[in-house]
Specification:
By secondary structure, this protein is an all-alpha fold. It contains 7 helices and no strands. The longest helix has 29 residues. Keywords: Membrane, Transmembrane, Transmembrane helix. InterPro entries: PAP2/HPO, PAP2/HPO_sf. This is Phosphatidic acid phosphatase type 2/haloperoxidase domain-containing protein.
């Protein structure tokens, strides 16, 4: 386990130090959860346009559950493992580019990675028959958001990887729940 943590630290420092001050502003914007509102608005519009209001409302309830689940589960893991973020880790901070203005105490695992990958899998699966390429766009978006957390100095790559894996799992499970509800209530 010690070797894995050391590898995670080295990979973090490598990826984090690829950054440049001239691009910091862009990665701050990418990482800001409020900047995704236009994307979410577009997805909401497409949801209502392609599926109608009943299906869309059921889907929105599942999305609310999904975001709550990913956020709260990441908090449970952070409180349990208490792994310091790179921006708070002695022996790492001195060699890293810490771009983020705020740095929480613990970072395992990344809620940003978990929630963006969960939404990508969930909505990508919802739209798969109507807009097949949507899932690839959403997965690329999730990967960029996840990487932004390493760039800003607030998460190790391992935090991102585990967050993404949990997000994929939660997204798929909630998609199955949504499909069950849609069929049970004859909303399709």
């Amino acid at each position: 386990m010690k070797e894995l943590i050391e590898l995670d630290h080295k990979l973090f420092l490598y990826l984090n130090n690829l950054g440049s001050e001239s691009w910091d502003w862009m990665w701050i914007i990418i990482s800001d959860k409020w900047m995704a509102i236009p994307l979410y608005a577009l997805l909401l519009f497409l949801l209502f346009k392609k599926f109608g209001w009943k299906y869309s409302v059921a889907t929105m309830v599942c999305i609310a559950l999904l975001i709550t689940c990913t956020d709260q589960m990441s908090n449970v893991f952070k409180d349990f493992f208490m792994r310091p973020r790179p921006c708070r880790q002695d022996g790492v901070t001195e060699f890293a580019r810490i771009v983020a203005e705020r740095c929480g105490k613990y970072g395992f695992y990344s809620a940003h990675a978990s929630s963006t990958f969960a939404v990508a899998i969930f909505l990508g699966s919802v739209f798969i028959k109507k807009i097949p390429k949507m899932i690839w766009f959403l997965l690329c978006w999730a990967a960029i958001v996840a990487y932004s957390r390493v760039y800003l100095g607030v998460h190790y790559p391992g935090d991102i990887l585990i967050g993404a894996l949990f997000g994929i799992l939660y997204g798929y499970l909630l998609y199955l729940l949504q499909q069950f509800v849609v069929k049970k209530l004859n909303l399709d």
